[in-house]
Write a structure and sequence with these properties.
Blueprint (H helix, E strand, L loop, with lengths): L2 H8 L7 H7 L23 E3 L14 H5 L5 E7 L11 E9 L8 H5 L5 E3 L14 E2 L1 H4 L65 H4 L4 H4 L15 H19 L8
Antiparallel strand pairs: 1-4, 2-3, 3-5
Length: 262
Amino acid sequence: MGFLDGLKEDLRFLGGFKVTLEQMARPRVTWEYPLEKKPKPVRLHGRHVLNRYEDGMEKCIGCELCAGVCPADCIYVRGADNPPADPVSPGERYGFVYEINYLRCIHCDMCVEACPTEAITETKLFEFSFTNRADAIYTKQELLVDDEGRPKDLPWEDWRPGDDAHTSAWMRATSPSGAAEYEGRVQWSGELGYGVRAPEGGQSGWRDDEATGVKSLREVLTLHLDDAERPPGERGLPGVLQRLRRRMKLQSQMLRPGNRRD
């Protein structure tokens, strides 16, 4: 065995560092949470909201179906007769008391399925925590959207742009009972601040991904791809700089006075 062969044999252990050295040269995929967050799925089950019609009237009619179907027994509803002079909802009754105990809620969305008027839906907000048990029980005042149709922003919640868009998208299905002929047709009423939401797509050509917020899996996971798997315009140093600019833009938006939370 020659000198070079012996040296090669002695340095064979360096091959164990091959994977480590390869990863060191690749762009980092770490998210700088909470300044930067992953894109949220369209059908994410988060914090509930009580919706209103476009004329401002409440959609909840106090039927208590959501409370009856809840497997965690976390919803408490009591209905009351509408005042003839100043009705709260279009029906004979409205939700006088509405409470959700988030210490019990499992975000199954069965309440959304059971609601006959689409009064309750779930947003994409899932980052909210409490310092006491009382804050975990959301009342009607906290769940009901404001006069512009936007959810209430409570101090212990971290709302981001888009968290209130396309709420409970999976419930807003395109077809009753899965009938294909209903796919792509609007089957629900308009909401205050949003109007009539676009129908979800599916397998038909009626789908409108831009309107419904549906994103392809590759688009959602693009920041987790290795450099070789990224689109050509996002590879190498230009791609790193592009993602850095995007992150700095997001940080500057969060530091604006209107978005800061002291």
